[in-house]
UniProtKB/TrEMBL annotation:
Protein name: ABC transporter ATP-binding protein
N-terminal signal peptide: none
Cellular compartment(s): Cell membrane
Keyword list, A-Z: ATP-binding, Membrane, Nucleotide-binding, Transmembrane, Transmembrane helix
Source species: Floridaenema evergladense BLCC-F167
Record-annotated ABC transporter domain positions: 348-582
InterPro entries with a match to the protein in the record: AAA+_ATPase (IPR003593), ABC1_TM_dom (IPR011527), ABC1_TM_sf (IPR036640), ABC_transporter-like_ATP-bd (IPR003439), ABC_transporter-like_CS (IPR017871), P-loop_NTPase (IPR027417), Type_1_exporter (IPR039421)
Spans through the membrane: 173-191, 248-273
Length: 587
């Protein structure tokens, strides 16, 4: 059976049940102490009117002045206890909100990191950011304020209702007569409001997605003078969000005015029937004054019920989205076989593998490839032939549909994902650098590296020279995605990052595609050192990068059509030879 968002939230907060219980108790007592003044006023009126026959006199205190002194002390104590319970409630709820917000955001992010790449390909970054930020912040707001309001409402109604039944049972039913109608209306209201707030949260995700994409692609927008077009698209998304919120608001604000008529009915009945009993001598003046005053505390909270439930539904819509993300199963579970870096040989084998993206036509079909440990192999072929897909399968970013991928004769599905990826250094053709310093980006993944090791890796990647020319050298901030650097500079930092990792298996996926010829020549000289004593898979369009590989494989339409050394492939005079002639300018 599907659990409600509130039940899911309470289950998630089970480790903090002591704090939750303490917060509920403090909120309950705060409300009860807040209700005390009307009772004390009623007793004070009773003392002034009845004097020696008052309620307090029946407890043994006959002197009216002494009775008033006792009431004054009780009033001071009540106000003090209310302030104390308010402090406790506010502190507990707000700390709980911060703790749950923190835990939920971190847990959701960690779960998100464990999902396969296909999950991210099917969803926008903006929508996921909206869940991690907006939805979890909405939950924080509810715990800060909405939860207290909800507890206060039920405590107030219950306490006042019991008081009415005990003091004036004949009139209590008239005062409470509107309550069933109000609750019925609230139930119908919630049924209609909940889906509207789900739509609001979904639309918030679309806006976040639009803004995230536009800010990431601001250079493209400017270069194509598309500012007006993108402004209109943001307007359309924002307008859709405004309209979805408007539909929710139209329903929520209509509820309170309708409640006032029911509240008016209960108040008038109490005023009239209670006054009649006082005139007939069946009810004391003090009790009547208390009733008229307190009936508002019984019924008026219902006017705030719509706002409380409005906040509740916003929070529950957010909880549904967050829990929905947490419920997403990892389609690529980690294996359990360990592969320590100290024992790995680096032997790689693709055994009759077949793979297709999202149930499309297979991009690789019955493909086999054996790479001996510490060998350097090159893979070339036209765009879309499956070169990069091959190494992504080795990294287990995707799962093969048929066949096996082996490292040291172990199926990578049986290996711990952490061990598998720690033994592979990957330089992607789409280099990603983080906002931070040059040194931090080179040391990414090798977080304990020394300055000397970072510099040595940069030298091997032919990056040291340009780094020294930057304003703060290795401490230069490179901006988001390394936007302050050229494409070639970014690529050299990515190579340095992989070198510093010192992996047994190195993947260079178009690693020199964005560097100039001079830098490429320098990097080629370093490759002899970089590839020593490790298995290297080099994917390249520039054949000069891989001409010294132990074996070069030529791919075409997801299959290997040629294989051999550079000289052997030239002798075959096939696809590789044609590519070499084109790139070397030989007719």
């Amino acid at each position: 059976m599907t659990q409600t968002p509130l039940v899911r939230l309470l289950r998630y907060g089970k480790p903090y049940q002591v704090q939750i219980l303490g917060a509920i108790i403090c909120s309950t007592f705060r409300t009860l102490f807040d209700l005390a003044p009307p009772y004390l006023i009623g007793v004070a009126v009773d003392v002034v009117v009845e004097q020696e026959a008052s309620l307090i006199a029946r407890l043994g205190i006959q002197d009216p002045l002494t009775q008033l002194l006792v009431l004054s002390i009780l009033t001071i104590a009540t106000w003090g206890l209310e302030s104390l319970s308010q402090y406790g409630a506010d502190k507990l709820w707000r700390n709980l909100a911060q703790t749950l917000q923190h835990e939920l955001r971190v847990d959701t992010y960690n779960h998100l990191q464990g999902l396969e790449l296909t999950y991210f390909e099917d969803r926008s970054t903006g929508t996921l950011l909206s869940i991690l930020n907006d939805d979890i912040n909405q939950l924080e707001r509810f715990l800060n304020f909405g939860a207290q309001d909800l507890i206060s409402f039920f405590t107030r109604v219950f306490a006042v209702g019991i008081s009415f039944v005990l003091l004036v049972p004949g009139i209590a039913w008239f005062a409470m007569m509107p309550i069933p109608f109000i609750l019925w209306g609230t139930f119908l209201f919630q049924l209609r409001l909940a889906p509207r707030y789900d739509t609001v949260r979904d639309q918030a995700g679309l806006i976040s997605d639009r803004l995230s994409n536009n800010l990431s692609g601001i250079a493209t927008i400017k270069s194509f003078t598309a500012e007006a077009y993108e402004s209109d698209r943001v307007y359309q998304e924002s307008e859709a969000y405004r309209r979805s919120n408007g539909r929710a608001i139209a329903l929520s604000v209509a509820f309170q005015p309708l409640l006032r008529f029911f509240i008016l009915l209960g108040f008038v009945l109490t005023l009239y029937l209670g006054g009649r009993e006082v005139l007939q001598g069946q009810l004391s003046v003090g009790t009547y004054g208390f009733m008229v005053f307190i009936v508002q505390d019984l019924l008026w909270p219902f006017t705030e019920l719509s706002e409380i439930m409005d906040e509740y539904q916003r929070a529950m819509a957010s909880v549904r989205r967050v829990m929905g993300l947490l419920d997403t199963p990892a389609a690529m579970p980690s294996g359990h076989h360990r592969l320590p870096l100290t024992t790995i040989r680096g032997e790689v084998q693709f055994e009759n593998i077949t793979f297709a993206y999202n149930n499309r036509n297979p991009i690789l079909k019955n493909l086999s490839l054996y790479i001996p440990a510490k060998a350097t192999v090159g893979i070339v072929g036209a765009t879309g032939s499956g070169k990069s897909t091959l190494v992504k399968l080795l990294l287990r970013f995707y799962e093969v549909q048929r066949g096996r991928v082996l490292v040291d004769d172990i199926d990578i599905r049986d290996l711990k994902l952490l061990d598998l990826r720690q033994c592979i250094g990957w330089v992607s053709q789409d280099v990603f650098l983080f906002h931070g310093t040059v040194a931090e980006n080179i040391a990414y993944g090798s977080f304990n590296a020394t300055v000397e090791e970072i510099i040595q890796a940069a030298k091997l990647a032919e990056a040291h020279e340009f780094i020294q020319e930057l304003p703060q050298g290795y401490d230069t901030i490179i901006g988001e995605r390394g936007q302050k650097l050229s494409g070639g500079q970014r690529q050299r930092l990515a190579i340095a990052r992989a070198i510093l990792k010192d992996p047994p298996i190195l993947i260079l996926d178009e690693a020199t595609s964005a560097v100039d010829n001079e830098t490429e020549a320098a990097i080629q000289k370093s490759l002899a050192k970089i590839t020593q004593n490790r298995t290297t898979i080099a994917i390249a369009h520039r054949l000069s990068t891989i001409r010294n590989a132990d074996c070069i494989y030529v791919m075409d339409k997801g299959a290997f059509v040629e294989a051999g050394t550079h000289e052997e492939l030239l002798a075959i005079n096939g696809l590789y030879a044609n590519l070499w002639r084109v790139q070397s300018g030989i007719s």
